[in-house]
Design goal:
It is a single chain. The protein is an alpha+beta fold. The protein has two domains: about 80 residues, 2,3-Dihydroxybiphenyl 1,2-Dioxygenase, domain 1; about 50 residues, Signal recognition particle alu RNA binding heterodimer, srp9/1 (2-Layer Sandwich), CATH 3.30.720. Helices cover about 15% and strands about 35% of the residues. It contains two helices and eight strands; from the N terminus they run βαββββαβββ. An eight-stranded mixed β-sheet has the order 2-3-4-1-5-8-7-6, with helices on one face. Pfam families: 3-dmu-9_3-mt.
Length: about 140
């Protein structure tokens, strides 16, 4: 089933923030916490700084109803500059690749493509962009 969630980027304290949110909402992480050190080597990707291996690559926490809050650490050593305002993405999870491609093409028109839609190591079809109004979007189609 298609869904929408919010994705937060933190400098280096995602785990602290999400443990706080978990205590507030009384829910548990979906699938645990994935770490940067879990990322398999990728062509063209620089070697991960040992200090970053335990940072959070992905965490998901149900809040109220069907709403999921997701997050990641975005360290400067990996080329990120997190500032208040650029740390939030609207994450769309359409049912099909065709729907994701259509939404991505429309949202990225006159905007900025960060990651073209492609197969990712975590098993999904994914892309990200910033629209012409500065709103950041992620599209993620899980393998079924």
């Amino acid at each position: 089933m298609a869904s929408v969630s919010l994705y937060l980027n933190f400098k280096r304290n995602t785990e602290e923030a999400f443990n706080f949110y978990r205590s507030v909402f009384g829910t548990e992480f979906i699938g645990g916490v994935a770490r940067m050190g879990d990322i398999p080597p990728q062509d063209g990707m620089p070697e991960l700084d040992p200090a970053d291996k335990n940072l959070v690559m992905h965490v998901a926490l149900p809040l109220i109803g069907d709403f999921i809050l997701m997050g990641t650490d975005a360290p400067e050593s990996m080329g990120f500059t997190v500032n208040q305002g650029n740390n939030v993405y609207i994450n769309l999870q359409p049912d099909t690749r065709a729907e994701a491609d259509k939404l991505f093409q429309q949202l990225s028109q006159d905007g900025k493509i960060e990651q073209v839609m492609a197969e990712m190591f975590w098993g999904a079809y994914y892309g990200s962009c910033t629209d012409k109004f500065g709103v950041q979007w992620m599209l993620n189609v899980d393998k079924k």
